[in-house]
Amino acid sequence: MSEDWNVEARLVAGGLDPRDVRAAVESYLDEDLSPERRDVTAASVFGPEHTSVVVLTSRAEGVLAGLPVAHAVFEAMPGDIEFTYLAGEGARIGAGRQLARIAGRTRDLLGAERTALNLLCRLSGIATHTRRFADLLADWKTAVLDTRKTTPGLRALEKYAVRVGGGENKRFGLYDVAMIKDNHKEAAGSVSAAYRAVRSAEPDVDVQVEVETLEEALEAVAVGATFLLCDNMSPKELGEVVEAVDGRAQLEATGTITLGTVVDYAAAGADFVSVGALTHSSPILDIGLDFEE
To answer: What is the pTM of this model?
Structure first.
């Protein structure tokens, strides 16, 4: 990507809507800098025309994600900001790697600092965790998916970080994929009845059926399901489903899959493994902001 691309072009290239990102950033900044609030420390120490140059620097090894989002945070400040990219999205970075250089009014730089870092550290942490799974699956057909176990208000950004880390997004919400789970099966009376009800009401929506046994998997495939969520199955149990289904449906394994077990599920024949921990339990990647010396 050309280094002269602006922040909007970079967000679009990552599959993010710049309008949504800007609106979200404004709400995040309002926690500290709404019309009724201001940075009392920076306003006391630095005059309104004082300028500085700061550098975003990684404190640990990982995968970088969210730099255009951090750029959008700084750009939302009232003064003019010059943001120079020193690393690219998805780059594997080591401790001490400079990621961006930002010049502008000191009050603006410090006012945006924590919000930008919170997002950048969070998204890079998710990308780093996802990349570990993706690396383990590099020699298999199996792809790693995220889930809806995202932080309220951060779903689009967290799922973006999964993509940067080499994973794939599953459904974004309750609206784009119908997922038949235990409560739906129980209410409808059976796997078959629930599937028919959803397919009748929503003929154009993709349908996935959660199954916990081989018998449920065969029932779902018999009624027309082509995407099964194999919940809390062991690799051995999944392998039996793979053999019985024989290519009639794609199979996703889920349920506390870890870095230590993911290859076992790939070897059993899963098309996908979904890992809620990518977005609900990934540790941040430590990134800091320092004044340029």
So the answer is: 0.94
